[in-house]
Design goal:
The protein contains twelve helices and eight strands. By secondary structure, it is an alpha/beta fold. It has a single domain, classed as Rossmann fold, CATH 3.40.50. An eight-stranded mixed β-sheet has the order 3-4-2-5-1-6-7-8, with helices on both faces. The N terminus is likely disordered.
Length: 284
Amino acid sequence: MVPGEAQGGQGNRRHPLCEFSIIRYNEGVPAKIIAIANHKGGVGKTTSARFLAEALAADGVTTVLLCDVDPHASLTKALGFNPKELKATLYDLFTGSRELSADELILPTNTRGVSLIPASPQLAEVETQLASKLNRERILARGLKPFLDSFTYVLLDCPPALGLLNTNALSAAHHVLIPVSTDIMALNVLPGFEETVHEIQREINPELVLAGILATKHEKTEHARHMLEALRATYKEKLFQTIIPASVNAKNTMATPESIFENGSGSSVAEAYRALAHELTDHA
């Protein structure tokens, strides 16, 4: 269904992803928070969070805070940290077990201008531990607030599963960026995630808007070409013009803490994320 189209005779019901905005950062205001999210696993959320952060910070001025919201801690590990050895992680922010300063919680990465709030497997326990807590969907928004003046952007790497962590990320965000690999299974899941975004907009965070849908892991196959055409036909201007290609180089870079703009600065993936950063901020 094309965004904005009526469903099942419900008239002009607002489509979950009908709001679209270009993200512009104004100096002197708190960071823009972007949730990188999709219920489907394996679509490039963690890769996109990391490489987009590195692309945004490549100008030497922009500062980006990455926040790993996934209990698997893939982003944390990719940036060279062992979650079991860290003194503080996002879990501590969620549980409020102790007061945390920026120096305790936020880690510098190997990329200038990019910092990290790491995850740990303990995040998987948050849903149960906070089941009776009032306003638990807004814990992340409240926890991030003291740090927002220090960064240009905050990128939230969200888990694929439904639950409190994903809800918190979408409730804290100003924008949601949705990576979608160009295969039939990823496209089939997208409408369900649209409904989740709509519910968050309606019940918790009316300010949440779509940054865009990002086609990822695009291969040079007939199937992938048809899937990309289907995305373009359905989502039109909501789909970023930038297409992220499938790449062995990207996989290799994710296995090291070095920036893709150092290890593979001339690669097609590096150039794609550089283009996405420009497109996202309307600086192209």
